[in-house]
Design brief:
Layout lengths: L1 E6 L2 E5 L4 E3 L4 E2 L3 E5 L5 E8 L6 E4 L2 E2 L1 H18 L4 E8 L10 H15 L6 H11 L11 E4 L11 E5 L7 E6 L9 H11 L3 H21 L2 H20 L10 H15 L4 E4 L6 E5 L4 H9 L6 E6 L5 E2 L3
Parallel strand pairs: 7-9
Antiparallel strand pairs: 1-6, 1-16, 2-5, 3-4, 5-10, 6-9, 7-8, 10-11, 12-14, 12-15, 13-14
Bound molecules: ligand DP6.
Length: 324
């Protein structure tokens, strides 16, 4: 009863920040992302009667901090398969750890694909996306490649539809990720977004303005209109951080180099370089650009004081089982 799968992280262009239902981990708004082609997470899941309890190893080492979330995700799979067996889960990222890249999205996407297969469950992409979303909202989007939308649930149940807006090869954008700190973030997304929901006076406006951003981004992706996508992505990103900062106590994910990178990217764009920024719950900056601008963008960000490293990637495919 074993299987292995791979998946890559995704980056939200229209952000998810806030839940409408904690029990089912239902987002309060839809979101739109791009799935990257790196780093890749490989996950092997092995259910066996000799396994006394669930075990989780990340890059060969036990990772106790993540074990509860991994076990909860396995519990949902076990319930569907009516199987009591415990599992050993081994996950490897092909990028150095501590690179500051959110790997929980690729991690949980790969986990549900491998876990379902190991249990002999024949689930479709939507069922897998729902299982991944319950583990981590953003993980549902890594089930699909290219441009992906995670929608709100219909009134009749806790399923959040996930759909492809465009395949990666139809609009192959590139991404330069500027690593400005390798320290782990002080307040994780789950805790941070709950703090914003409970304390920020701006939270209702964040939720009520999301649909306009989603509609604008959908149209930009449909038209392959880079400047419109740049506009809505930077708007959603800065709005999310304004919301985070307006929480109590305020959440400040930027460091000095983060801010300097944002200015550098805007300057490049005024000079005609097709690039825009987005930032998640940490200090790294993701510069999304047309492929022909990647070298120039990467170099410009590498020159910003405080930038430790640049990771370059393209758009990639959704989570899938490994070929044996
Ligand atoms: C800023 O998906 O990590 O990256 O559902 O609580 O696990 P949980 O949150 P998570 O939050 C992602 C927040 C974000 C924006 C995004 O990816 O949409």
């Amino acid at each position: 009863m074993q299987a292995s799968a791979q998946a890559q992280p995704n980056i939200a262009l229209v952000k998810y920040w806030g839940k409408q239902d904690l029990r089912h981990n239902l987002p309060a708004t839809g979101s739109i992302s791009i799935t990257l082609d790196a780093p890749r997470t490989h996950t092997r899941v092995n259910f066996s009667a000799s396994q006394e309890r669930d075990q989780f190893l990340l890059n060969g080492k036990p990772e106790p901090a993540m074990l509860n979330r991994v076990s909860a995700c396995l519990d949902n799979l076990r319930a569907l398969a009516d199987c009591p067996l415990r599992a050993r889960v081994e996950s490897d990222n092909d990028f150095p750890t501590g690179a500051g890249l959110a790997s929980s999205a690729s991690g949980f996407a790969a986990l549900v694909v491998a876990g379902a297969s190991a249990l002999g469950l024949n689930l479709d992409t939507q069922q897998l996306a729902d299982l991944a979303r319950r583990a981590s909202g953003s993980a549902a989007r890594s089930l699909l490649g290219g441009f992906v939308e995670l929608l709100l649930p219909a009134a009749d149940g806790p399923s959040t539809p996930v759909r492809s807006l465009r395949a990666a090869h139809e609009w192959p954008l590139a991404v330069a990720i500027a690593i400005t700190s390798s320290r782990t973030k002080s307040v994780g997304s789950t805790e941070g977004m709950e703090r914003s929901r409970l304390t920020s006076p701006y939270y209702p406006a964040w939720v009520s303005s999301a649909e306009d951003d989603l509609a604008y981004a959908r149209q930009a992706i449909s038209d392959r209109d880079f400047l419109s996508l740049a506009r809505v992505s930077e708007f959603s990103c800065l709005k999310m951080h304004a919301l985070a900062m307006s929480s109590e106590p305020g959440l400040l994910y930027f460091n000095g180099a983060t801010v300097e990178c944002l200015h550098r990217i805007r300057t490049l764009r005024t000079q005609g370089v097709p690039v825009f920024f987005t930032v998640d719950a940490g200090p790294q900056v993701k510069a999304v650009c047309l492929p022909e601008a990647l070298e120039q963008v990467g170099q410009a960000l590498a020159d910003v004081p405080g930038v430790q490293k640049i990771i370059r990637c393209g758009l990639g495919a959704g989570a899938r089982l490994d070929k044996e």
